[in-house]
Amino acid sequence: MADRILNIEEILEQMRCCWKGDIAAAETVKRLFRARELFFSDAKIVMEQFNLSVGEFDALASLRLQGAPYEQTPSNICQANMVSSGGLTKVLNSLEKNGLINRRQCADDQRSRLVKLTDKGKKLIDEALEIVLTRHEKQLSDALSSDERETLNKLLMKLNQAGIR
């Protein structure tokens, strides 16, 4: 018989049986992780349709959301996406090879290069983001009322402001 993936309720029930302490925090965190996984796995399907890795999608989205001229330093892209410079170099090499970005010397700092979206890269990330955001909007509106979403946003902002990293 194949192993079956347990749902959250089953995992929490197992925790209640074997853990004598309070599992309220574990319950909240498990639900947050599960929600993140649902949204991320759905977004990943779109990334795959556009032949993008997660790192490539994130780098392109960072450049696009920066606004015109859609240009940033690699350091800023690393900070925005919480990735190492080594990991980003691989991503940028791939994006440049595929004509989605250009890199040029930074006028202010000769040691750094600026990364800029090409027209092809902007078109691709605009299409991908439109699909991802539309799907996320549908998932949220199907599951929550506008009042519930507002409450959820306030609670998540409160958690983020409390320093959860």
TrEMBL record:
<dbReference type="GO" id="GO:0003677">
    <property type="term" value="F:DNA binding"/>
</dbReference>
<dbReference type="InterPro" id="IPR000835">
    <property type="entry name" value="HTH_MarR-typ"/>
</dbReference>
<dbReference type="GO" id="GO:0006950">
    <property type="term" value="P:response to stress"/>
</dbReference>
<keyword id="KW-0238">DNA-binding</keyword>
<protein>
    <submittedName>
        <fullName>Transcriptional regulator, MarR family</fullName>
    </submittedName>
</protein>
<dbReference type="InterPro" id="IPR036390">
    <property type="entry name" value="WH_DNA-bd_sf"/>
</dbReference>
<dbReference type="GO" id="GO:0003700">
    <property type="term" value="F:DNA-binding transcription factor activity"/>
</dbReference>
<keyword id="KW-0804">Transcription</keyword>
<dbReference type="Pfam" id="PF22381">
    <property type="entry name" value="Staph_reg_Sar_Rot"/>
</dbReference>
<dbReference type="InterPro" id="IPR055166">
    <property type="entry name" value="Transc_reg_Sar_Rot_HTH"/>
</dbReference>
<dbReference type="InterPro" id="IPR039422">
    <property type="entry name" value="MarR/SlyA-like"/>
</dbReference>
<keyword id="KW-0805">Transcription regulation</keyword>
<dbReference type="InterPro" id="IPR036388">
    <property type="entry name" value="WH-like_DNA-bd_sf"/>
</dbReference>
